[in-house]
Amino acid sequence: MTKVKWLDELPRSKSGITWGVPWKKGELGKKEKLALKNSKGEECYVQSWPLAYWPDGSVKWTAQSAVFDSDSDRAYEIIKTDRKLKPGKAIEIYESKEQIIIDNDVMKCYINKTGQDIIEKVLMKNKVVNEGGKLVVINEVRKDNIHQFEKYYSKIENVSIENKGPLRVVIKFEGVHSDEKREWIPFIFRMNFSLGIEYFRVTHTFFFDGDPNKDFIKGIGIQFSLSLNENDFNRHVRYALEEGMYSEPAKLLLTRFCAVDNKAYEKQINGEFVDIEKADTRTIELAEKNAIWNNFKLTQDSANHYKIIKKSEENLTYVDVLHGSRANGLMYVGSESAGISLGLKNFWQRYPSSLEVKGLAKKKTTAILWLWDPAVEAMDLRHYSNSPHMVAYEGFEEIRSTPLGIANTSDVYIGFYNKMQNNEEIYEMSKEWQNNSLLVCDPEHYYKTKTTGKWGLPDKSDDKKKFFEDILEENFEFYRKEIEQRNWYGYWNYGDVMHTYDGVRHQWRYDLGGYAWQNTELMPNIWLWYQFLRTGNALVYKIAEAMTRHTSEVDAYHFGEYKGLGSRHNVVHWGCSCKEARISMAILHKFYYYLTGDERVGEILTEIKDGDQAVERLEPLRGFFPESDIKTHIRTGPDWSAFCSDWETEWERTENEEYKNKIIKGMDIIKSLPNKLLSTPACGYDSKTSILKHIEDERMTGEFHMMISFGAPQIWIEIGELLEDEEWKDMIADFGAFYMLSDEEKKKRTNGKLSNKCFSWPMFATGMSAYCAKRNGDRKLGKKAWNLLFKELNAKSKNMITPSVIKSWRSIYEDPNVTTNCVSQWSINTIMCLELIGDMIPEEFTSK
Question: Which residues form the PcRGLX/YetA-like central beta-sandwich domain (predicted)?
Answer without folding.
Answer: 92-430
